[in-house]
Amino acid sequence: MNTKILLVEDDPSLGFVIKDNLEMKGYQVTLCNDGESGETTFHQNTFDLCILDVMMPRKDGFTVARNIRKKDQQVPILFVTAKSMLEDKVEGFSAGGDDYITKPFSVVPTAKKTSTQSSSLVNLNSTAAI
Amino acid sequence: MSRLTLRIVIVLAGLSIAGITFTQVYWVRKAFDIRENQFYRDVNAALVNVANRVFEINKTPSSANNPVTQVSTNYFVVTINGPIDASLLEFLIETEFEKRSIKADFEYGVYDCIYKCMARDTDGQAGNTRLVNQAALPHWDNAPMDGYYFGVQFPKREANLVSQMGIWMFSSAVNLVVIFFFVYTLFVILKQRRLSEIQRDFINNMTHEFKTPISTIAISAEVLKDPSIVNKPERLLTYTTIIQNENNRLKQQVERVLQMARLDREEIKLKKEVLDVHDIINEAVKNISISKTSSESNIELKLDTSAAQVNADKLHLTNVFFNLLDNALKYCKETPRIVISTTKLNDLLHITVKDNGIGISPENHKKVFQKFFRVSTGNIHDVKGFGIGLNYVKLVVESHKGKINLASELGKGSTFTLIFPVA
Question: Where in chain B is the domain with CATH 3.30.565.10?
């Protein structure tokens, strides 16, 4: 079964690049351009992983994560953002995120079976900041 | 400086300033009271002596009671027991006052038994001008039935007393200077704080704008590193195009920041020429429709004035209109509708740019023209920008000796009015 990933990123280039890379590794990726459409898409489908940007039009990533958590406690949520301050990270985790990755980063996705959740986790390794 | 420290500093400084002011006021009043009392004592003693001299002249025994009564703060009445010549009285009062070095100007009047009213003489320190003014001095109600009396009034008593308190005036002035500096320092601290906040926001904003293309390029480079990509030329092309676009974006952003830094360092250099504003507006509208392919021609022009010549720099003025239009299109949730109109009023050209965008709440009306200021939307990142555009608009308009006004309400669109002198 293909792992389904919800990717919410407002920058079209970055969105495409991440999506394309993940698809190359064999994941099924749905890309949304803003927080609101990301949320609706999440409610319409089931996903195994959510990758959210934070600063987005209409609805920010933290709010989206909180709303996702209301419906689903299990699905892993990853934040991918340029906001690198500690208080942002804290807010990210308290909003229900499982990991917080600051830009710029590189995608080194390795599928890892987590025993508790029967879903795959993608590792996005954050490279050193500029 | 943290918020708490700042608050403590302000409260403590405020308390100390209040304390100093209170002490100052207290001592000044005390000193004033002492001087006042001394003045009353001196005047009293002098008038008693005058009365005694009058008794001597009239060859009557001096009365047992104190003949001097203070009717009000600056009016003294002296009871005597016979008529007295006004000039003699003046002479007597003057000598006595001189003895006690009472330098205040005074007026005196002699109660006239026949007409039952006061005749007044004014004395300008040395008795040079004499002015008789009937009933100028108040009548003394408690006077003995058929008694004679005269009154002495000090019209400028308070001013006179104050003028003797030089050292106190000086210390009060110093106190005022201290308060002024405190207020000024506080103002500067708050301003600096706000500036540093704006700067932090700007840096956050800028790193976001920079980091996103950098991430895209980094990931794309990784893809290109994979040797197998050579077999998929269309993928190769897609990624190189992405890198190119992102690179251009970075270049533009760097350029914008540099431009702003340049604007900051020196005055805008204007190459002024006589221009028709309508041409400039048309040019800006054309530029904006090229750069924003999505926006249709929803810009309406109402260029009413026939002559709209101004002395201006073409490039900068075009940028001004471009920025205004760009904002109007960017900060709009519905289909943008922009109306640009021009009117001429008494040698002043009014150009209004009206949009149906999200509007600006009144407390931000001034701030939007500040550099790096962006109306806060938290993490919601609808519109990208550095907070530079309107600051630039204001700078350019003002360097053309023009004015810019903003009328706006949240949710009801904004209207920018630019006013230029006609060339």
Answer: 272-421
**Domain tally, chain A:** 1
The partner residue sitting opposite A55, judged by closest CB among B208, B242, B246, is B208
Residues of chain B contacting A83 with CB distance shorter than 8 Å = 204, 208, 379
**Superfamily of domain covering B272-421:** Histidine kinase-like ATPase, C-terminal domain (3.30.565.10)
pLDDT for the residue B140: 61
Is pTM beyond 0.95? Reply is no
Dihedrals φ, ψ of A78, to 5°? -115, 130
Residue A126 lies in a domain: no
Q: What percent of chain B has pLDDT over 70?
A: 85
Whether pLDDT at B14 is above 80: yes
pLDDT in tens, B145-166: 556 777 787 877 777 777 777 7
Instruction: Confirm whether A130 is domain-assigned.
Output: no
CB pair distance less than 8 Å for B246 and A13? yes
Instruction: Give the class (CATH, top level) of B166-265.
Output: mainly alpha
Cβ contact, residue pair A20, B223, below 8 Å? yes
CATH number of the domain at A112, please: 3.40.50.2300
Q: Is residue A129 part of a domain?
A: no
| CA–CA gap between residue B357 and residue B324 (Å, rounded) | 12
Mutate to test the interface with A, among B201, B206, B209, B211 (most CBs of A within 10 A): B211
Long-range CB contacts (< 8 A, 24+ apart) of B135-139? B136/B107, B136/B109, B137/B75, B137/B107, B137/B108, B137/B109, B138/B71, B138/B75, B139/B111
- Ranges of CATH 1.10.287.130 domains, chain B: 166-265
Return the sign of the alpha-carbon dihedral for residues B298, B304, B306, B310: negative
* B379:A62 CB<8 A: yes
In tens, the pLDDT along A1-12 reads 678 888 888 888
Nearest to B368 by CA among B385, B384, B391, B350: B391
A11, A25, A31, A66: best to mutate for the B interface, most B CBs within 10 A = A11
Beta strand B338-345 with B299-303 is parallel
Least confident interval from B20-29, B299-308, B411-420: B299-308
> Are the C-beta atoms of B358 and B331 separated by less than 8 Å?
yes
Q: Choose among B201, B390, B245, B239: nearest CA to A55.
A: B201
For A84, the closest chain B residue by CA position comes to: B204
Global ipTM: 0.77
Model confidence band, residue A120 (pLDDT cutoffs 50, 70, 90):
very low
Q: Which of residues 254-283 of B touch A (CB under 8 A)?
A: none
Q: How far apart are CA B374 and CA B330, in angstroms?
A: 13
Q: Cβ A57–B216 below 8 Å, yes or no?
A: no
Answer whether A55 sits within 8 Å of B380, measured CB to CB: yes
Residue A78 forms part of a structural domain: yes
Range of the domain at A84: 4-121
